């Protein structure tokens, strides 16, 4: 006889069956999922089959399948087959779905066919957070993170890769042709001759395939082709490795680390600042926001566009000048005087605004002093040209970018705040996903999948901030 706690007999019948609701505590997160979906107007959000047809076999209500997916992404179960398994053994899902158990095909089809509705449901939860004053400070950190796509590097082709493979195959063909030439001079077993001819035929066929692939790549606007997921691209990751992936852009609130908005792209960060800032303004319903970003977002046109939106932005500038490698003075050695509209060179001479030009869509003022530069004793440290003077080019809106950099210099804690804010959601979502890739392909489906990740992340954050019961009450009252 032991003093351990004993369980109940599995074959013992009970007079009064237990109620399923008794197994789900009031603080169970599954109740949030149930209340949130019940309060949504699924028809207005664009979900299909909200109104069932009067004829034909009955289908599942979209609310049932949306609850299933939100629960799955909250609990690191994203696969439709795994969700099907859980509906038959998971007590929380039995309660949430009222003991319904759709098959994996029905589950997968729902995610495929209701992408827009799922994205709007995700936005609806963000708006709920806004109404609960979660974004009162109006400061967001913007960043992008690379998420692996359903496409290996083997099935991704660039011009360089195609040329390298063609050169490798041509070398193999030359090797086997030389070996066939030696057959006449040496006694070679017949099986070896057949093997060489088979390999030669295979490599010739492969060469034709690669040459065709090269033509396809060169005709593509991005000069890159992915065979498994055509929308995925080969991009550099943080450790400078290359990976076929998507670049997920997000704007994260600095107060509670909630994701305000997100988007799926297949390009690098440059050029995304103004677009993400505008998207944030629309969702927060306010223009006076501050967006923080890293140096990968620095673009003078983008910063000007962001400021024109009425927002403030803080983005560090990178020094991309190649002057030091050439052994001449860096641009930073030339000081601009806004009152006189001149540059002072390291020799102390004044460089005057001589002309205006347009480069890469930017209007630039050009400053130089031909006479002073011609007689300068340190000319060889300033320019490599023997005839032309050193020129300084200044964007006509450079003062706005310089004012932004001055504000950034006066707020040295900004880079730390940005990193602590925006890296947290990405790290959490990637941990939930595990060492894997997106389960779906193409922009449309990957965007739907990311919306489910973001909705689950924000929901879990709000549970941590407010608690389950308080959040349940807020959703019902909202």
UniProtKB/TrEMBL annotation:
Residues 20-112 form the Transposase InsH N-terminal domain. Pfam families: DDE_Tnp_1_6, DUF772. Residues 344-463 form the Transposase DDE domain. This is Transposase.
């Amino acid at each position: 006889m032991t003093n351990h706690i004993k369980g109940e007999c599995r074959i013992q019948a009970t007079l009064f069956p237990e109620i399923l609701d008794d197994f789900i505590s009031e603080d169970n997160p599954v109740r949030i999922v149930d209340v949130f979906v019940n309060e949504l107007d699924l028809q207005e959000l664009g979900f299909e089959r909200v109104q069932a047809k009067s004829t034909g076999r009955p289908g599942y209500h979209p609310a049932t399948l949306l609850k299933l997916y939100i629960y799955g992404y909250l609990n690191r179960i994203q696969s439709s087959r795994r969700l099907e398994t859980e509906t038959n053994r998971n007590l929380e899902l039995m309660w949430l779905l009222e003991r319904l158990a759709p098959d994996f095909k029905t589950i997968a089809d729902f995610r495929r066919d209701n992408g827009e509705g799922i994205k709007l449901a995700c936005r609806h939860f963000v708006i709920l957070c806004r109404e609960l004053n979660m974004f009162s400070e109006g400061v967001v950190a913007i960043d992008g993170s690379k998420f692996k796509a359903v496409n290996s590097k083997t099935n991704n082709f660039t011009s360089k890769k195609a040329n390298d493979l063609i050169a490798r195959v041509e070398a193999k063909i030359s090797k086997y042709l030389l070996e066939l030439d030696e057959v006449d001079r040496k006694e070679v077993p017949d099986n070896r001759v057949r093997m060489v001819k088979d390999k030669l035929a295979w490599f010739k066929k492969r060469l034709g395939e690669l040459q065709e692939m090269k033509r396809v790549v060169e005709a593509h606007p991005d000069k890159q082709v992915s065979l498994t997921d055509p929308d995925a691209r080969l991009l550099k990751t943080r450790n400078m490795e290359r990976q076929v992936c998507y670049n997920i852009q997000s704007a994260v609130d600095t107060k509670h680390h909630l994701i305000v908005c997100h988007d799926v792209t297949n390009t690098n960060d440059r050029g995304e600042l103004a677009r993400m800032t505008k998207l944030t303004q629309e969702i927060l319903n306010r223009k006076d926001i501050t967006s923080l970003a890293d140096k990968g977002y620095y673009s003078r046109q983008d910063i000007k566009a962001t400021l024109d939106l009425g927002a403030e932005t803080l983005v560090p500038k990178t020094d991309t000048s190649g002057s030091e490698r050439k052994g001449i003075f860096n641009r930073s050695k030339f000081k601009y005087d806004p009152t006189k509209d001149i540059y002072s060179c390291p020799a102390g001479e004044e460089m005057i605004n001589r002309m205006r030009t347009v480069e890469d869509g930017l209007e630039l003022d050009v400053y130089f002093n031909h006479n002073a530069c011609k007689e300068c004793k340190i000319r060889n440290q300033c320019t490599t040209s023997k005839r032309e003077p050193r020129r300084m080019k200044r964007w006509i809106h450079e003062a706005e970018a310089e004012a932004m950099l001055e504000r950034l210099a006066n707020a040295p804690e900004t880079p730390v705040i940005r990193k602590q804010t925006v890296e947290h959601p990405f790290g959490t979502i990637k941990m939930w996903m595990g060492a894997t890739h997106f389960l779906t392909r193409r922009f449309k489906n990957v965007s739907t999948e990311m919306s489910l990740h973001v909705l689950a992340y924000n929901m879990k954050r709000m549970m941590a901030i407010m608690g389950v019961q308080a959040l349940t009450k807020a959703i019902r009252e909202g």
